[in-house]
Write a structure and sequence with these properties.
The complex is a heterodimer of chains A (303) and B (360).
Chain A: H1 2-13, H2 15-46, H3 53-69, H4 77-100, H5 105-127, E1 140-143, E2 148-151, H6 152-174, H7 176-186, H8 188-193, H9 198-223, H10 231-245, H11 250-271, H12 276-298
Antiparallel strand pairs in A: 1-2
Helix pairs in contact in A: 1-2, 2-6, 2-9, 2-10, 2-11, 3-4, 3-5, 3-9, 3-10, 4-9, 6-7, 6-9, 7-9, 10-11, 10-12
Chain B: H1 8-24, H2 29-52, H3 60-76, H4 81-87, H5 97-126, H6 131-149, E1 161-162, H7 170-197, H8 199-209, H9 211-216, H10 221-247, E2 249-250, H11 252-256, H12 262-273, H13 280-298, H14 303-317, H15 321-329
Antiparallel strand pairs in B: 1-2
Helix pairs in contact in B: 1-7, 2-7, 2-8, 2-10, 2-12, 2-13, 3-5, 3-6, 3-10, 5-10, 7-10, 8-10, 12-13, 12-15
The chains are: A mainly alpha (303), B mainly alpha (360).
């Protein structure tokens, strides 16, 4: 407890630390925002809540880490992970997801939970339970007279995440497929009537989401670290972000992603790193409770 | 499902199996004991998941809460808990026979009561949530509990607690816990059968079929949901207390709140056996326990991959479950009148109430 108060007073006494945490939070948050956008996409278009989202990220991370071990620059892991994850997404769509879309929501939740367990345990068997990190050979800058170190990898990750997000958003706005995806999200039946092959749209959306996760995972491996069982934490994080923002609300999802990054940096600094996971789960419960209070105002039922 | 209390013949058969099993298969005593625990898991999960249509991913919360409550009561009655957990590795603390059994009895009762109270408390948060939000919210409760316990020094944090040692021979201990678990499963089955035959059973089925309509008909849905959740929690708390003493060592992540093993087994067993049927969870538990023992023995290392695949396969291809499939195949055997062809399907359907935000 004293340590927590000490940390808070340290933040008060040294405002410059706040800036450092804020910058770090935003840099990390950009990756959350990217992956959360993928989750919101699948959620909105096919109303499948993908609980394996975090584990897709871990696959992308391990691909990048493997490339790094082979002596290839880890930044190349981003496109490679995207391609591989696209393929994995396609296989999973064919075998599992296409069969649960029309079913109730718990079915898809449980099916993706099963996929998550398979991926986690598979990664654990192949790569072992150790925490790994792919090191890109980039320097560490510092601003404010050396008080705030900023790793160049984080900046590269940030820029890449933003570029990817812009590319995806432009794709959704401009391209024919993007328009079809948005039409299906609005009303799948009407889209079918108007000649859109919704089956193809679903498959494309799921693969696109997997590829986005792959890119996010590659960035996670570069700026942070990967471990087979970290996937669940990412899934919960992304779920918190999307639930807090509402899945139709793209700017909200991006803002919540950044907010999550900043919140975690501050929370981790004040409470200590070992509370990070508990913090995320508590945040989930808080978000769900707040959402419920909002709905209570609308819904006056027999009590 | 007939809405009559359990048949006396069935009770006799259950007792016969329960008493006979450890005599017939003395080598598998532990596995059969765990099987009764699994039946408790599956049947209590089905109260909400099957009969009420609320799919919880966090029922394990009550199991762990019961386990820790009983541990704290059993130790706290005679020693200081903080001292006990911090000194567990250096000092050897012995409980006398009388101390052990009074502690165990009181601890088990306290476990059930505390779990039920926690259910009432959490119901305020989780029951405003519907569908997948309910599932994720309950999972959040269980994961949060595991994380908090593993950083709480007073109850041993992540290192766990060594439970008081059973005063007696290992054989007696085995039989003692076997019969406790069997008794619990028996009580759960008879109790639930009675419960489903009352108007309470009808009410929770109404909530599953259409919650808005049930509410419009004047059912106090919140009260029913809370009661069902509390009943499940009570039995799970007791199960946690017994299991904690049986294993002799408790620890937050893998034993008390195992969100990826026991927690998922519950759901899997119910889906495998048939959701929303009385005997489905029991059948599912038996089949699952056999599958699990075989894969654990022959695919060691890959067993969790196999588990994940099993989840996907059951959920995607075989969701009506064994009993559900039998009901579809031979409806007359289950006392369901089938209307002639081209008319409506049989009135009893298994599944969830339609969700407001479904895709189509």
């Amino acid at each position: 407890m004293e340590q927590v108060i000490g940390n808070i007073s340290l933040l008060g006494a040294m405002p410059i630390f706040n800036l450092g945490l804020l910058i770090d939070g935003l840099l990390v948050g950009s990756i959350f925002a990217l992956a959360a956008y993928g989750l919101a996409l699948v959620w909105g278009v096919m109303s499948v809540k993908n609980l394996a989202q975090g584990d897709f990220i871990m696959i992308g991370g391990y691909i990048t880490w493997t490339l790094g071990r082979l002596g290839i620059e880890p930044l190349f892991g981003v496109p490679v992970a995207m391609v591989v994850l696209w393929g994995i997404g396609w296989v999973l769509y064919r075998t599992v997801i296409s069969k649960v879309i029309a079913r109730d929501l718990f079915t898809s939740l449980l099916a993706t939970f099963g996929i998550a367990i398979v991926i986690q345990q598979g990664l654990n068997l192949v790569f072992g339970p150790d925490t790994q990190s792919a090191h890109a050979n980039l320097p560490i800058f510092s601003i404010a007279g050396g008080l705030i170190p900023i790793a160049a990898t984080r900046i590269v990750g940030f820029v890449l995440a933003i570029l990817l997000a812009i590319a995806v958003i432009l794709f959704m706005k401009k391209s024919r497929m993007g328009q079809a995806i948005r039409a299906t999200a609005q009303d799948s039946r009407a889209a079918r009537v108007l000649g859109i092959d919704t089956e193809k749209v679903y498959s494309f959306t799921f693969c696109l989401n997997a590829a986005i996760c792959g890119a996010a995972g590659a960035l996670v491996a570069i700026v942070w670290n990967v471990q087979p069982f970290l996937g669940t934490t990412y899934s919960i994080r992304l779920f918190v972000i999307v639930t807090a923002a509402g899945f139709g609300n793209l700017p909200g999802v991006v803002a919540a992603g950044f907010g999550m990054g900043v919140f975690e940096q501050f929370g981790g600094f004040v409470l200590g790193a070992q509370f990070q996971q508990a913090l995320i789960v508590l945040l989930l419960l808080i978000v769900l409770a707040v959402r419920q209070l909002q709905q209570m105002r609308v819904r006056q039922a027999v009590q | 499902m007939s809405r009559t209390p359990i048949h006396p013949l069935t009770i006799g058969l259950l007792l016969l199996i329960g008493v006979g099993a450890p005599l017939l298969f003395p080598a598998y005593g532990n596995q059969v004991a765990v099987l009764w625990l699994m039946i408790v898991f599956a049947s209590t999960w089905d109260i909400l998941g099957g009969q009420m249509g609320y799919n919880s991913l966090g029922n394990i919360f009550f199991f762990g809460a019961g386990m820790y409550t009983s541990a704290v009561v059993q130790i706290g009655l005679f020693y200081d808990v903080g001292m006990y957990t911090s000194g567990a590795r250096t000092t050897h603390i012995v409980f006398t026979t009388a101390q052990y059994f009074t502690g165990f009895a009181l601890g088990t009762i306290a476990a059930g009561v505390v779990a039920a109270l926690l259910a009432v408390a959490t119901s305020w948060v989780v029951f405003g949530l519907r569908g997948p939000y309910f599932a994720i919210g309950t999972l959040g409760v269980a994961v949060a509990a595991a994380e908090l316990i593993s950083s709480w020094e007073w109850v041993g944090a992540a290192a766990g607690i060594s439970m008081p040692v059973f005063p007696g021979a290992p054989e007696t201990q085995k039989l003692f816990f076997y019969f406790l678990l069997f008794g619990l499963a028996f009580a759960v089955l008879v109790g639930l059968r009675w419960l489903y035959s009352t108007s309470f059973g009808l009410a929770i089925n109404a909530i599953r079929d259409d919650e808005e309509k049930a509410e419009a008909m004047g059912l106090h849905t919140r009260r029913y949901k809370r009661t069902a959740w509390t009943i499940a929690a009570f039995f799970l708390g007791i199960a946690g207390a017994i299991f904690g003493n049986m294993t002799g060592f408790i620890e937050p992540r893998d034993i008390a709140f195992p969100t990826t093993t026991f927690n998922i087994f519950m759901i899997l067993m119910v889906l495998l056996g048939g959701k929303g049927t009385f005997w489905g969870p029991v059948v599912g538990a038996v089949v699952f326990q056999v599958i699990k023992e075989v894969t654990w023995t022959y695919f060691l290392g890959w067993q969790f991959v196999a588990l994940g695949l099993l989840i996907v396969i059951i959920v995607v291809y075989f969701q009506q479950g064994i009993v559900g499939w039998l009901m579809e195949r031979y409806p007359e055997r289950f006392g369901i009148r089938v209307a002639p062809r081209e008319k409506e399907k049989p009135a009893r359907t298994i599944g969830l109430a339609p969700h407001a935000e479904g895709a189509e």
